[in-house]
Amino acid sequence: MAQLIDRRPNAKGKSTVNRQRFLRRYKKQIKKAISEQISERSITDIEGGESVSIPKRDTTEPTFRNDQGGVREGVYPGNKEFAPGDKIKRPPGGNGGQGRRASDSGEGDDEFVFEISRDEYLDMLFDDLELPNLQKNQLRKMTRSKTVRAGFTNDGVPTNINIVRSLKSAMSRRMAMGAEPRRRLHELEGELQALQQEVGGDENRRLELEQEIEQLRKRIKKIPFIDTFDLRFNNFVQRPEPTSQAVMFCLMDVSGSMDQETKDIAKRFYILLYLFLTRSYKDVDVVYIRHHTQAKEVDEEEFFYSRETGGTIVSSALELTRDIIAQRYPPTDWNIYAAQASDGDNWNDDSPVCEQILAKQLLPQLRYYAYVEITRRDHQGLWAHYENLLQTHDNFAMQHISEHDDIYPVFREFFRKQTQ
Amino acid sequence: MREPISTGAEWTFELIEKYHAEIENIAEEYGLDTYPNQIELITAEQMLDAYASVGMPIGYSHWSFGKHFIQNEQQYRRGRMGLAYEIVINSNPCIAYLMEENTMMMQALVIAHASYGHNSFFKGNYLFRAWTDAEAIIDYLVFAKRFISECEERYGIDEVENLLDSCHALQNHGVDRYKRPYPVSMREEQERLEEREAYLQSQVNDLWHKTIPQKEIAEEASKQQNFPQEPQENILYFIEKNAPLLEPWQREVVRIVRKIGQYFYPQRQTQVMNEGWACFWHYHIMNALYDRGKVTDGFMLEFIQSHTNVVSQPDFDSEYFSGINPYALGYAMMTDIKRICIDPDEEDRKWFPDIAGSNWQETLDFAMRNFKDESFISQFLSPRMIRDFKLFSILDDEERSELEVTSIHNDSGYHYIRHALSNQYNLSMNEPNIQVQNVDIRGDRSLTLSHIPHNGVPLADSSGEVLKHLRRLWSFGVKLETLDASGEVINTEECSAQAG
User: Are strands A143-153 and A233-242 parallel, antiparallel or unpaired?
Assistant: First the structure.
């Protein structure tokens, strides 16, 4: 008799270790592929995994094998018209009769494509990023009061009367108040009837009874259908609730001095910020504002990939941010975050203006404003003016990034205060 | 009167047991000698896992298995690849995996095919008897997994991974074709482990520690003995025993890879026979079930459709052609042998005087036990088979601009085609002949391999990479010499000690 075993409940994923080993071994290639692909991925698209392709030749396992060529003889099925001695032209592409087999075993230079999960993707993207730590942290949230039902109460305004409750209570009151007289009425009516059937009954008693019955009827009739005492009102209380919506403003300089690599670094930073916000907020809106001498709200595609030339006036973007907040994102309802990426260039006379707008108009409305300067050169005017803000505002932060590797440490630095 | 065991497509454990009991009876009546069966129900995901570890139920961890897993998973998810209905493991008890998704008919078919077909082949065929030990393999795999993970803890994952990479590159060259090893079980293996480590190390040191005064080297060189005395085809074994600088644990890892390679060696040589045998028996068993009224007409139709798919052979010019289908060839040959035994015609009597008219069960049993693909074809491929398959042979000489049809399925071609097809399954003609030729034990300790091309077939480019792996194991320079027919060196590939 055979042994029949149900292995289905066993842990699947016996290959997980081997899969991890594979990812570990090809980390360099995978990271490179991901870096190249980051341009094709949207900031807000972080829920899915990622399809990665790395050169196949890197993943082959070499063995001593025979190559094509030499003298080979092969046997094939399905002869139709060949006779011994027939000569056939070598089929193109493959090498002789072995063509098919050769191409199967031969190593093409194609890509080895596979999927990695979201966490694996983020791990690779930010390398030693420790996501669980992020999860534990909670951002301070703005609260907003919300009216919620809180049972019923005995007084209130007429609009809140709960009809069903009120009538129920009226009915029970009527029943309670009428019970005694009704029982008495019932008794007296019985007695009266008996008296009437009796021949030569006591006339006085009869009149007495009729009088009393009349009184009782009046009394029962007097019980009011509804009384102020019966009224029930829906009760509402105000409860403070953290807002679950946030908006993230991405500001970026797109003037000629920002090259694609700088933008890619900025993009990573935005992805990280978005990820961070989605941990804390249910809905996160993203607003993209790019600017050179003028600011414009654009979609993500245009934000990262259209090129502009010309000078830089940072304040234009700040003004636009202010206006959009005024129009669409009232600070009482929204947690507002803003991140600005720039290579530090600004028209010199504009920097004091930026400082003013931020200090007076924007920062009081924002939960957090992060400025990253992505450059390998020395800081310019903007940096100095922004530094002034550091002293006066604790929801303002600025950092300097020069390479991909700086992003995560900088990010961590940014949010240290916030996560207390 | 028909009393089918079940009528629906759904399977249950009770039904599987009932079907199995019937199949077991039938197999017994046909005289199939098997290991006890262990049937395991698994999900598609678990099947993917099993694929990745090349059918080993337990395997050590290595990235290459992860790569295969990812590849299969990817293809499966995109619907490019169906999963095999079953995987069967040559062990005692013989483990067969059945997939959850299969219909009742499929489960019965798989039990007949794997648990009785393949199982009896594993137990009976001489190659499996000589090369594998069904009793020991699971234990050995457990031992290997534990040993390698211990090494990873002790010496680091990278160190072990690099070593395994190098061993894998040579895994196909870890077999002594002409010696018969005796595989040992886990307990013995562990007992012998320490002993062997100590002994090996002393042996190796002995070989290398003799120091010779400089002057004598030149004189000695001419008369010194070659080492190894005879060329060695088992490169991994040679490394395990003689590589100068390997640590004992590294030798053990080499040995593990070699042993596992050896375990799969018979499977590579008996694909046609093994599948043919299993298909032949599942066909007979399923028909017997039907004849006894145990299954419905619908069951049978489903079976026949499935069976036909498995044993079909597309023509060479069909878009579905991908070489000769071992299931088709094997099944057709097994069936043909039965026909020759039961109902031989004149041609059969002339070609197969020994088996024409003999007891078919005994003849098939004999064939199953004593042959491998190469010899099986050369012994049993009948002219009728060649005609049915319309086989023809093509000569592809790279010196000539055209291919030549050398023979077809006619009187003068039968012998030729039979010989050519048999060669196609001859491992030694399909895998490069590479042997350890010499070690310069008095000089720079470099290792020389010789490659003797068969019919001028060159080595693939990957050989350079393999040499690097070999150098990692050997720790000194490695050289690959390609010899021509007269033994002259015509090409040398070198991987010197310093490089890399």
Answer: antiparallel
